[in-house]
């Protein structure tokens, strides 16, 4: 729920007029600590898996540097997000921050243009996380198809992906039905199953000597690389796609309304996850290139971890790697599922989406949003093209980060917002850093990812990305009409009640 008044029918101004029973139906419960938030966000390091063979195709061994710089970018951005999380403790991460900052206080009309900006940022963030479900369900189906020949004789790869999606999405709805504590428990279990083998398979080749440093150092950049406009745009596009993976640990802040102590829990969860991400992204890419070389890595665009495991452990390592990857994919699906559901809940409670998406069950879970997201991703699976889906999704994530960083700058410059209590503060002058990285996202990375998409998968994914983002406009106008009508109803009831009270006197 928002702390500021002026958002007709959906904010605290409305909450103060509604009954406690109604309010409790849309307010998230504070039930987790930073360790549980970290457990849920630990799926983020696994986002590197789909890109391990893709980045070296463009920048050879320099992919290792790109990942390291991208995690560094995450630290710069997430310092701002951590401060926003404690300044707006009831806001759900990036979607909530932008919506709180970009709205006009005490606005009484239907269509607040500033509010539209915050809502669009939240919608972009939702579109960034939401397709992760379909992308990894498709990959799970693909691994099952190649791992078990008997399944390949019975089902097509698409059918296996669809079944995997139904089972995983349905299972996660059931696991999280009773609130985030169940999700965090599942996160602990899946993290142990997936992250530990990932670490072992990554470090083992260094110990056994299978990592050959010359495989890395002999080709830092492709032979035809030049620092011209073409290659710089490619690099910016890679940073946009790397950010989709390596900066995504800001998801630990999205559970701000559900931490028991947001002032201390948010920064702890953020930076613990960031440290894990830095070492995992750099070391995993280094291990793959060190074992396979640049050309060998490019030859394994989907599953380069399998030959790495074979090099360290023999043929049995391939089976372990695939089982680990499937468990890892379930973990990142859960991270994306919870994050995108809470983004929809945040938008609905702020009046930026139809209020049906803000409904919670008795345990405080946005179950309606989870069901709709699951159905939407089952539809996305039918596209069967995870690369195109990811490319479109990266456009949304770039927009969300750029607008959110601009929101931080505005929150620091606005006297009323600057006076809000901030249990955690970024270093002095951080608004300048936030502005710099905001401009890096919009327009630089946005232009870069559109250019890279045009080279790799054509214009289809770019058009899909922009069309999905544009769909927000009709949804927003509907939502604002809905909120305004609700306000008028409340005003009419209050007027009748006042007249009745006067007559009785």
Short summary:
The chain contains 22 helices and no strands. Helix content is 72%, strand content 0%. The chain has helices at residues 12-15, 20-24, 34-41, 55-59, 63-87, 93-101, 113-129, 132-147, 149-154, 157-176, 180-208, 213-217, 229-246, 262-298, 305-313, 315-349, 367-381, 386-413, 415-418, 430-456, 460-470, 472-504.
Question: What do you see in this structure?
Answer:
By secondary structure, the protein is an all-alpha fold. It has one domain (30-105, 112-481): Amino acid/polyamine transporter I, CATH 1.20.1740. It contains 22 helices and no strands. The chain starts with 11 loop residues before the first helix and ends with a helix. It is a multi-pass membrane protein. InterPro entries: AA/rel_permease1, APC_superfamily.
Mean pLDDT: 82
Helical coverage, percent range: over 70%
**Residue ranges: pLDDT <50 for 5 or more in a row?**
1-26
CATH topology: Amino acid/polyamine transporter I
Structural class by secondary-structure content: mainly alpha
How does the major sheet shape up? Answer: none
Can you identify the CATH superfamily? Amino acid/polyamine transporter I
Q: What does the radius of gyration come to?
A: 23 Å
Order of helices and strands: HHHHHHHHHHHHHHHHHHHHHH
Please identify the top-level CATH class: Mainly Alpha
- The beta-strand count equals 0
The N- and C-terminal alpha carbons lie at a distance of 37 Å
What is the architecture at the second tier of CATH? Up-down Bundle
User: How many independent structural domains?
Assistant: 1
Strand content: under 5%
Shape: globular
Number of helices: 22
């Amino acid at each position: 729920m928002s702390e500021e008044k002026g958002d007709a029918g959906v904010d605290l101004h409305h909450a103060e007029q509604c009954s406690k029973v109604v309010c409790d139906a849309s307010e998230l419960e504070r039930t987790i600590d930073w360790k549980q938030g970290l457990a849920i966000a630990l799926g983020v390091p696994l986002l590197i898996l789909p890109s391990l063979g893709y980045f070296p195709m463009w920048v050879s061994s320099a992919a290792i540097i790109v990942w390291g710089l991208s995690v560094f970018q995450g630290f710069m951005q997430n310092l701002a997000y951590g401060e926003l999380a404690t300044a707006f403790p009831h806001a759900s991460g990036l979607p909530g921050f932008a919506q709180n900052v970009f709205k006009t206080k005490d606005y009484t009309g239907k269509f607040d243009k500033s509010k539209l900006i915050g809502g669009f940022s939240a919608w972009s963030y939702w579109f960034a996380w939401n397709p992760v479900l379909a992308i990894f369900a498709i990959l799970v189906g693909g691994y099952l198809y190649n791992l078990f020949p008997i399944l390949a004789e019975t089902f097509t790869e698409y059918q296996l992906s669809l079944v995997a999606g139904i089972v995983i999405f349905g299972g996660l709805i059931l696991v999280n039905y009773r609130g985030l504590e169940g999700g965090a428990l599942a996160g602990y279990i899946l993290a142990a199953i997936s992250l530990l083998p990932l670490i072992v398979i990554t470090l083992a080749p260094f110990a056994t000597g299978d990592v050959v440093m010359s495989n890395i150092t002999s080709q830092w950049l492709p032979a035809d690389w030049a620092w011209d406009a073409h290659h710089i745009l490619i690099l910016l596009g890679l940073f946009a796609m790397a950010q989709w993976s390596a900066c995504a640990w800001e998801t630990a802040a999205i559970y701000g309304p559900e931490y028991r102590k947001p002032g201390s829990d948010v920064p702890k969860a953020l930076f613990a996850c960031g440290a894990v991400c830095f070492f995992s992204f750099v070391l995993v890419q280094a291990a793959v290139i060190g074992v396979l070389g640049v050309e060998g890595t490019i030859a394994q665009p989907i599953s380069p971890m399998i030959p790495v495991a074979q090099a360290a452990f023999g043929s049995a390592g391939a089976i372990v790697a695939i089982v680990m990857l499937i468990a890892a994919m379930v973990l990142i699906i859960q991270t994306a599922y919870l994050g995108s559901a809470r983004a929809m809940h945040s938008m609905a409670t702020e009046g930026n989406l139809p209020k049906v998406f803000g409904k919670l069950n008795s345990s405080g879970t946005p179950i309606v949003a989870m069901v709709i997201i699951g159905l939407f991703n089952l539809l996305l699976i039918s596209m069967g093209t995870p690369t195109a889906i990811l490319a479109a999704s990266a456009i949304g994530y770039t927009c969300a980060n750029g607008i959110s960083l601009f929101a931080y700058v505005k929150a620091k410059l606005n006297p009323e917002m600057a006076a809000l209590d901030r249990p955690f503060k970024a270093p002095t002058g951080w608004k300048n850093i936030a502005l710099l990285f905001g401009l890096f996202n919009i327009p630089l990375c946005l232009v870069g990812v559109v250019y890279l998409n045009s080279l790799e998968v054509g214009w289809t994914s770019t058009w899909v990305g922009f069309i999905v983002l544009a769909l927000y406009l009709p949804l927003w106008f509907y939502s604002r009409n809905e909120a305004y009508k609700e306000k008028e109803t409340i005003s009419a009831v209050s007027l009748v009640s006042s007249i009745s009270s006067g007559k009785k006197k």
